[in-house]
Design a protein that fits this description.
38% of the residues lie in helices and 23% in strands. By secondary structure, it is an alpha+beta fold. A 4-stranded antiparallel beta sheet has the order 1-8-3-6. A hairpin with a 7-residue loop joins β4 and β5. α1 packs across α2. The protein is globular and about 60 Å long. It starts with a helix and ends in a 14-residue tail after the last helix.
């Protein structure tokens, strides 16, 4: 697939994290990206891998999966066109927290960590704006997790309050 620089700029400026960048700042950032096609079922990275890049889905969709020993892998999200993932690898040097697999034929923009860090070392303002954008994405995701956790705890508390049921009668052996 042949993607022009103009198409890439238009696409990325339509994504919230990239909106604060000027065309010039975005053009500097685009010098570091790799455009990578993935087949359906192809792994982008695996849980536990070193975080060496972050990604934007240009087309297609990817599945984010987590693994627990002795259990089936569990899909925790499907990310489609315009979604960003792997950004934690830029903010810390931790291992990947999930496995990402192309759910269908997909085209991803890959931002390698070392090249992105070089932009930061060169004081490219666009790179700094993207780090701020990554922090905002992580804050939004944390708020979603907090909401899910609060709902879970509320549901769990309700179950405890409802036990035993009002019409519960214990069965006892009579002697």
């Amino acid at each position: 697939m042949n993607i022009t620089l103009e198409k890439m700029i238009d696409f990325l400026l339509g994504i919230g994290m990239f909106e604060p960048l000027s065309v010039e700042e975005l053009s500097e950032v685009l010098t570091i990206i790799d455009i990578q096609p993935y087949r359906e079922g192809q792994e982008v990275f695996s849980e536990g891998d070193v975080g060496d890049a972050w990604y934007v889905v240009y087309s297609g969709a990817v599945s984010v999966r987590t693994h627990k020993p002795f259990q089936m892998d569990r899909s925790v999200a499907v990310l489609e066109k315009g979604c960003i993932f792997g950004e934690m690898a830029i903010l810390d040097e931790g291992a990947r927290s999930a496995t990402v697999i192309a759910q269908e034929e997909s085209l991803l923009f890959r931002f390698p960590r070392t090249r992105f860090e070089r932009l930061l070392e060169q004081s490219k303002i666009g790179a700094y704006k993207l780090v701020y954008g990554m922090a905002c994405v992580l804050v939004e995701r944390q708020r979603e997790v907090n909401q899910i956790l609060a709902e879970y705890k509320e549901h769990e508390a309700q179950q405890i309050d409802d036990f035993p049921p009002d019409d519960y009668t214990a069965e006892c052996d009579e002697e």
